[in-house]
Design brief:
Blueprint (H helix, E strand, L loop, with lengths): L7 E5 L6 H11 L7 E5 L3 H17 L5 E5 L2 H5 L4 E4 L5 H14 L11 H25 L4 E4 L4 H11 L3 E4 L1
Helix pairs in contact: 1-2, 4-5, 5-6
Length: 172
């Protein structure tokens, strides 16, 4: 029996343009995940369908090593998960531009407003609120799962998760 058999990995934000497909690419290429179930979870049904289709193509090319599921309800999607990967954002493109432009207008010249400076603070406040709401769902439906957070700004979001929840969380 393969190591991955029976393992369930939930990708919250899995309908994102890069997160779902890129993570699926890694999963289908990992010999240790053969037989695992990957659940793509997102509230954006159109993005979720695109990520699922891309994942199915990759999976087929590799001989269908994993089972792919989709879910728009986070609680249902994470139930029974061994691992939860989290990458979410609130209207990322729209706010990223503001996080960069507004501080610049007021004299703060930063290279990128996503993780540092005043723009990073604004991004943190939006991200942390959303992530902690999701973490409540995880605590109720997958309390034993290891949370792998890749939501930016990563250090600030992980700090909030560690301070406000009982979840085991790591971030890269």
């Amino acid at each position: 029996m393969d190591k991955g058999s029976g393992v369930k990995i939930a990708l919250v934000g899995g309908g994102g343009v890069s997160f779902g497909p890129v993570t699926m690419y890694g999963a289908v290429r990992a010999p240790g995940l053969r037989g695992a179930t990957i659940v793509l979870i997102d509230i954006n049904e159109k993005g979720l369908e695109s990520a699922r289709a891309a994942g199915e193509r990759l999976n087929a090319q590799m001989g269908n090593p994993v089972r792919i599921e989709t879910e728009t309800d986070t609680a249902r999607g994470v139930r029974g998960a061994d691992f939860v990967m989290l990458s979410v954002a609130v209207e990322r493109k729209k706010y990223w531009k503001q996080d960069y432009a507004i501080p610049r207008k007021h004299g703060s010249h930063q290279d990128m407003g996503e993780c540092g400076g005043p723009g990073g603070l604004f991004h943190s406040l939006r991200s942390i609120k959303l992530v902690l709401e999701i973490c409540k769902t995880l605590e109720q439906n997958a309390p034993e799962a290891l949370l792998l957070n890749v939501t930016n700004p990563l250090p600030r979001v992980n700090y909030a998760i560690h301070r406000a929840t009982s979840l085991q969380c790591v971030g890269d």
